[in-house]
Amino acid sequence: MRIALLDPQAEFARPANVTTFWRDETGAPLVEGGALGRGRILRLTRGLSPQAMPQLLEGDFPERLRALAMTPAPAPARA
Predict the structure, then answer these.
(1) Which of 3, 37, 42, 52 ranks highest by number of CB atoms within 10 Å?
(2) How far from 15 is each of 42, 58, 61, CA to CA, in Å?
(3) pTM for this model (two decimals)
């Protein structure tokens, strides 16, 4: 499966079903996305800077991002 990790400003065809995959401590989305074709899109909702996304400074950030890529995509809503 191919996965595209996009920044917040990227323009793309939104998947039919968008899921929030990672939220911050207040519940605001950090990464959202869904299945698209035979792959999956993950889009960051904030820029990759410590000011915009303080989670970058946490020691487990790389592992959490990797886990998102390894998580199976949600099943399509229609075939």
Answers:
(1) 42
(2) 10, 29, 25
(3) 0.80
